[in-house]
Design brief:
This protein is α/β, with parallel strands linked by helices. The chain is built from nine helices and ten strands. It has helices at about 15-30, 85-95, 105-120, 135-140, 145-160, 170-180, 205-220, 245-250, 270, and strands at about 5-10, 35-45, 45-50, 55-60, 95-100, 125-130, 165-170, 190, 225-230, 255-260. The strands form two sheets. It has an eight-stranded mixed beta sheet with strand order 3-4-2-1-5-6-7-8. Strands 9-10 form a two-stranded parallel ribbon. Strand 1 (about 5-10), helix 1 and strand 2 (about 35-45) form a beta-alpha-beta unit. Helix 4 packs across helix 5 and helix 5 (about 145-160) crosses helix 6.
Length: about 270
């Protein structure tokens, strides 16, 4: 039997470079391994984008975020109650695993499915996927006061963690927050699975190496410099403003250093 997985996230739009690339790589790998995987994301309208025999992206009509970053759209609870778009997707796909990467609205869909499963006696395994810490987001967007971290911990322990059967974190740092917040009766396993990156170490062909050197020269980067690259969303919780200080410190150790920041977001103007 082919395993069928639904992955739900609000963190996906045309400009979400790093996250978008990560999810497309996930779907590409699923296609290669002939595993059915559907990514469910917010969009301007309901739509299905078939990527191959085994993979697809389901766009669910959703409004723009009212705060922080209006480029994002949010699938809100009214889309996953009885008769909602998410309910129809689950009924059509009949997944064995549903993974949710969201701590604010989509996570409650797992609660809806968990309650239905308890009544029916069967249903999909529910996984919470954490790519960042809630206390960091509280500090970045609401308050740096210790009360913010306490609120985050209470919400995770009393509401979020218990919605799922297990959790996957992208790092031990992210997992530590879940472990510290966990409390009975919501004790759940937490697994760490770093995002996969294939590092190509083979030497580049001569023409490509020449083209790369020309590009570096056009950017005004010294040929002997160590290049530090950040590619991703420019938002407060990413703390990209730390990178110039890191580069300056490395340069102070007599290393030739050049920092490249590629991306867009609400912090772009300030960073520039």
């Amino acid at each position: 039997m082919t395993l069928t997985t639904l992955h739900l996230t609000n963190a996906f739009h045309a400009d979400s470079g790093g996250i978008r690339t990560m999810y497309l790589a996930l779907l590409q790998q699923a296609e290669q391994e002939q595993r059915r995987c559907t990514l469910v994301v917010p969009g301007e309208c309901d739509d299905v984008q078939r990527l191959g025999r085994f993979t697809a992206i389901q766009h669910v009509r959703a409004p723009r975020s009212p705060a922080f970053d209006r480029r994002y759209r949010l699938i809100l609870p009214h889309r996953f109650f009885t008769g909602g778009a998410l309910q129809r997707i689950v009924a059509a796909e009949r997944p064995q695993v549903i993974e949710v990467c969201d701590k604010y609205s989509l996570c409650y869909f797992a609660g809806v499915l968990r309650r239905r499963r308890s009544r029916a006696g069967f249903g999909p395994t529910l996984i919470g996927h954490s790519c960042e810490r809630l206390d960091d987001n509280m500090r970045a967007f609401i308050t740096g006061h210790p009360v913010g971290a306490r609120v985050a911990r209470r919400y995770l322990g009393q509401a979020y963690i218990g919605l799922f059967d297990a959790h996957i974190a992208n790092s031990q740092y992210t997992a530590d927050e879940l472990h510290r917040a966990m409390q009975a009766p919501h004790i759940r396993p937490v697994y760490v699975s770093p995002p996969g990156v294939h590092a190509m170490r083979a030497a580049l062909p001569g023409a490509r190496m020449t083209a790369r050197r020309q590009m570096v020269n056009r950017l005004g980067i010294p040929s002997a410099a160590h290049v530090l690259l950040y590619a991703g969303r420019l938002s407060a919780e990413k703390a990209v403003d730390l990178l110039p200080r890191v580069a300056a410190r490395l340069a102070g150790q007599r290393w030739p250093v050049h920092l490249l920041i590629a991306g867009d977001g609400p912090e772009r103007t300030r960073l520039e």
